[in-house]
């Protein structure tokens, strides 16, 4: 009934890599932000805890989904696989 179940298994057979479909808006946003080459160091206080390019990608993707508030962008990033990519 159960296919070869092992509690000591260290790897999963499931592929965890994700690539968006061809011509998806996430790919276009990724190429756009990568072409901007954002490399500004922090100037004041402690270092940033996030990558500026990744934040810009998330915000632009959220705007294409008509999501404008911080709480809704946070929810989009938690629930949407394309937004996390």
UniProtKB/TrEMBL annotation:
Protein name: Transposase InsH N-terminal domain-containing protein
Domain of life: Bacteria
